[in-house]
Amino acid sequence: MNQLHVRIEGTVLKSRIERLYAELEARELRFRPHFWLSDEWFSPDGVPGIAIPFYLAHPRLARLENHMMLEVEGASEGACMRILRHETGHTIETAYRLYRRRKWQEIFGKRSQPYPEYYQPKPYSRNFVHHLDMWYAQSHPCEDFAETFAVWMKPRSRWKTQYEGWPAMKKLQFVDELMHEIGMTRPQVSSKQHMYPLKSLRKTLRQHYADRRLHYGIETTNFNDSELRKLFSDSPENSRRVPAASFLRQHRVEFRRYLADWTGQYQYTIDEILSEIIRRCEELNLRLDRPPAQVRRDALVMLTVQVMNYLHNGHHQVAL
After folding, report:
1. Contact (CB, 8 A) for 236 and 181
2. Distance separating alpha carbons of residues 21 and 191, to the nearest angstrom
3. Is the pTM of this model over 0.70?
């Protein structure tokens, strides 16, 4: 990976970083995070900077990422800016050591709280803002702050009306007051260190993707057969009808994208779950016994339930 010879300069990433800087200026914030390429998105402890995944620095690498992981996180300008604003929240927290403030701890919690291996979000909770997928603000106090900051910072954000009456409004008002306080002051931490830069990574791309697919893959499991039999049929009288496995393969891309959008999980993880469901349909020799349009509608409901049950039972490690 250290031989890829890709850079941020001369790519769309440069213009997106400049757009982020313009947003910070518009908010009258003096601080500017620094950037470098690595193997994934992150902002390290103690360093007020942001690592950007290497695949966003070249179209061929983006195509490889899409081929191996079925999506490219941060590929579109909108998605990239959402992540950049979130990560900037982490860098400002670090640069000004905001987590040490008593009021910050009272509102968001303690930064020392361990990151969970799994978390089960409450989708209808009004204690948290909504920014990134999977109700990410609920995973940890630091993520809660970063998400709140991102909502506050977004240009033309309507947080004052969107979150009116929500307990989360208290967090947004605190961030608003805090940013006005630190605005043009000098950061307490100004390290320009690059953690795990691409030029230091000696792993091959083959090994990199093998590790990622293992991390975002699933354990072998048996899904609820009774639910599959409600959707499809194993009756001999339907033996000449369309196999359920073939039907699911036909709609696999559509279902995968829908479920990934709804759950906030990587498409690769969803695709692995779909593979297991398709395999089980083949083993049970299930077939369609109703019009395809009706089965498609019901399949989306069933698959959503199956996927959410699987994820919320702690089978999948959330990427944090």
Report:
1. no
2. 18
3. yes
